[in-house]
Design a protein that fits this description.
With 319 residues, the protein is an alpha/beta fold. It is 47% helix and 12% strand. The chain folds into two domains: 210 residues, NAD(P)-binding Rossmann-like Domain (Rossmann fold, 3-Layer(aba) Sandwich); 80 residues, N-(1-d-carboxylethyl)-l-norvaline Dehydrogenase, domain 2. Bound molecules: nicotinamide-adenine-dinucleotide (NAD).
């Protein structure tokens, strides 16, 4: 029998994590807190299932294309070099079946986590809500169950004591559009058992991710520790009028060979997220600071609906 994975939280990321687990053959249960949560999560399951299967089927057009190796859905196909159109057709069929048969939704927490190999918490970035759920869950979990958090900004050491199993608790952090951007940052806290950590690394690989191992806790993990200051520096150059987004992007791309510049990345991340990150800096609340200026300029764009690629316009226009 396949191992049971439980996802707590059926939002954007929780849904994607559950689906990639189901796709790779894990028996997957979403624990949701209410009927209305089911009403919100079910359409997401349908939407992301379609996107995943469309991207998988779309990979047939990439077979033999030199760009194929960059563009295929890496979380769904493990060995691109040996891929053929026929093999992808088979994978689509199997994927359709797995994404239907391996998914369950449960409101009763005890039933949801019963016999779970791993529980992945992917709830809103609200410490009280996370503590509430860990506390409610801790006596319901089997002794061996591993507990992970997908939190982007909160550290596992903040919550370890509430889990009742600090040694079996760590962060497993995914990226949005998990089936294409298949990174999984694995980060323990000081009390995480090294054997559990290794097991989480193994699990991440089994669900099609590339496990990226952190050897100690770091707010922002590896990616955001680099990305947030990089994007802030670009916003500084723009907001203070040193240069314009197109020139800043071009400079970065030409000089480093990177496929995208910071403003193209900001359009993907979304300007609301960039604004929220900027506003968390104390200087953003002080009139006359660069951070305050960046906040105002981002807000102007957000108020005009120019929030990024999903709205067709951010720093660039998208058809
Ligand atoms: N969105 C991203 O790009 C992204 C990327 C990586 C990690 N994350 C992390 O994933 C987690 C979830 O983010 P998201 O973007 O999916 O958020 P979301 O707002 O789309 O979903 C949050 C989910 O948590 C549920 N929830 C909130 N409070 C709850 C409670 N008390 N009990 C049970 N369920 C509750 C909500 O019903 C919802 O289903 C966060 O910790 C976030 O930092 C998000």
């Amino acid at each position: 029998m396949s191992k049971k994975v439980v996802i707590a939280g059926g939002g954007v990321l929780g849904t994607q994590i559950g689906l990639i687990c189901a796709y790779h053959g894990f028996d997957t249960t979403f624990w949701l807190r209410s009927e209305s949560s089911i009403g919100r999560t079910t359409p997401k399951i349908e939407q992301y299932t379609k996107m995943m299967l469309d991207d998988l089927a779309g990979a047939k057009a990439l077979v033999g294309n030199p760009m194929g190796g960059y563009l295929y859905p890496k979380g769904m196909i493990s060995d691109w070099k040996s891929m053929t159109v026929e093999k992808i057709d088979e994978m689509v069929k199997e994927g359709e079946k797995n994404l239907k048969d391996n998914i369950h939704i449960e409101l009763d927490m005890a039933k949801a986590v019963d016999g779970a190999y791993i529980v992945i918490e992917s709830m809103s970035e609200n410490p009280e809500a996370k503590i509430g759920v860990y506390t409610a869950m801790k006596d319901l979990l089997s002794e061996d169950t591993i507990l992970c958090t997908n939190s982007s900004t909160l550290l596992p050491s903040t919550f370890a004591e509430y889990t009742g199993r600090p040694e079996k608790y760590c962060a497993l952090h995914f990226a949005n559009t998990i089936w294409k951007n298949n990174t999984a940052e694995v980060m323990g806290h000081a009390g995480t058992d090294p054997e559990v950590y290794k097991e989480v690394v193994k699990f991440a690989a089994e669900i099609g991710m590339v496990p990226l191992q952190l050897h100690k806790e770091q707010p922002g993990y590896i990616l955001n520790t680099m990305l947030v200051p990089f994007l802030s520096a670009a916003q500084y150059l723009w907001a203070t009028g040193v240069s314009d987004p197109e020139t800043i992007d071009l400079t970065w791309q030409l000089a480093t060979g990177a496929p995208k510049g910071p403003f193209q990345i900001l359009d993907i991340v979304g300007l609301e997220t960039a604004y929220n990150i900027n506003q968390m800096k104390p200087a953003a609340q002080q009139e006359g600071t660069v951070e305050n200026l960046i906040g105002k300029k981002l807000k102007e764009k957000i108020d005009r609906g120019e929030t990024g690629i999903t709205k067709g316009k951010g720093f660039y226009e998208y058809k």
